[in-house]
Amino acid sequence: MPRVPRELNRRVNEQLSNRRSGVVMLMILLSAMTYFDRTIITIAGPGIIKEFSISETGMGTVYSAYLLTYALLMVPGGWLADLFGPRLVLMFMALGSALFTGLTALGGRPVLGAYIGVIPSFLAIRLALGACAAPEYPSSGRMNANWMPPSKRARVWGWIASGAGIGGAVSPLLFTWMSGRYGWRGAFWISAVASAMLGLVWYWYARDYPDERPQAAYRQKTRAAWKELLTNRDLMLLTAGYFTVAYFEYIFFYWLYYYFGEIRHMGMEQSAVYTTLMWLTWFVMTPVGGWVSDHAAARFGRTLGRRLVPILGLTLSAILLYIGTNLTDTVSVVTLLCLSLGFAASSDGPYWAAAIDAGGEQSGLSGAILNTGGNLGGLFAPVLTPFIASKVGWSWGLYAGSLIVMIGVATWFFIGTSEHVRAEAPEHVQH
Questions:
Q1: What share of the chain is helix, strand, coil (3-state, %, to 5)?
Q2: Which of 139, 154, 170, 183 pairs as cysteine with 81 (C-beta 3.0–4.6 A)?
Q3: How many angstroms separate the most distant Cα atoms in the chain?
Q4: Which pTM was predicted?
Q5: What share of the chain has pLDDT > 70, as a percent?
């Protein structure tokens, strides 16, 4: 007789594990699609600069417009995920992103740019796109907290963050191919359709909790614990550190393709390949960093374990960027710059796992606060990098990133384990 309950328990646990894997896979795909939609403007960028005679700094402003609303609306997006549930919020995120990705095709002349100007038309579309995409990672952080125990959150976040690597790796080659076949405007519309379809699949498959608890569970918690979160020492230090990491990473996201092609004169096709390698390095290193962080936390304790990967990884990133910028051999330059981004990316899982712990029952909001800090750093990088380069050269534009990210390393020496740790999500269902 006891065999029946045990067999039933085994099947339920197996179904739960499969469901978790499916939810994580869809969050990875949403992350990939969001980054694809976010970064393809940089692939179209050199052509847009030439077509509409836009300056590098002007195009950098267009890039940063996305980050302005993305950063400003990050916290409201996390609050909405805590209030209404990440499943619903992520669906609207995907559909809104799809809409304004498609509308990017109307930027410039002869459409919107003919009425409000070329740069203002692209700015308006990018501002709206950033607003729609803002809830993506806070909502994914809330899903991670709802579905995963603390012992697995860094590695799961590493996989979610690796989706950005997939999107970034695919975008140079795929968008270049689509643009060659359908024009850059047609390529934006194709991307929009794919994003909308993924959002609908997400809503059909995902649930807010493994046990599918009712939506009322969210509405009972409408009062955000702002004071508790904003005075949480660990969360504020994590946010400050994430600012520096994002500044560093966004130099790669928005200017490395241009740096390879226009400054290093490697050729645009080769630059697309090298930029793809950069994103593939991100794809590999984010889950590796999360996995190492989870194991280090289990072995050495959460305080020391969470520190190891960011301190070592970010220090190596700063050093490798400096060395790579001073080399002349193409293979060596590309290899070191890819590894530089990869080691920075390895810190993503520890940052988000620590922020989820600090947020307790409001992990969507704590993740939003963390990511707001990160994207404020990202907001400055696309504009400051070419500005510094115009004054003292592109090498110093990149060196600035190394100097700033070392400040982020320093913050980890003051980050301890937060007392506000969310209860573990059930790993097994008991009957």
A1: 85, 0, 15
A2: 139
A3: 79
A4: 0.78
A5: 86
